[in-house]
Design a protein that fits this description.
By secondary structure, the chain is mainly α. The chain is built from six helices and no strands. The protein starts with 7 loop residues before the first helix and ends with a helix.
Length: 77
């Protein structure tokens, strides 16, 4: 993964709403920013948390959690 970006769309939507990782951690009820960053880097969000994020950003989960590999497999690389 180049630059450590697993979910480019999640990063983009987070930036669009001007939310930092600490704010995202608090929104999801995580104990600290590092917990959010770890889940974001490893792709280990729970389904409940993934739904919360999609709702916050008003996008689909498919869009939000699309990876570079997904894009390449769909011919959009």
């Amino acid at each position: 993964m180049e630059g450590g970006q697993m979910f480019r769309n999640l990063d983009a939507e987070q930036a669009r709403l001007n939310k930092n990782n600490q704010q995202m951690a608090e929104y999801l009820g995580y104990k600290d920013r590092k917990s959010y960053e770890t889940k974001k880097a490893t792709g280990t969000f729970t389904l409940t948390d993934a739904k919360k994020l999609a709702k916050l950003f008003d996008v689909t989960m498919d869009y939000l959690f699309e990876t570079v590999a997904d894009r390449e497999a769909n011919g959009n690389g």
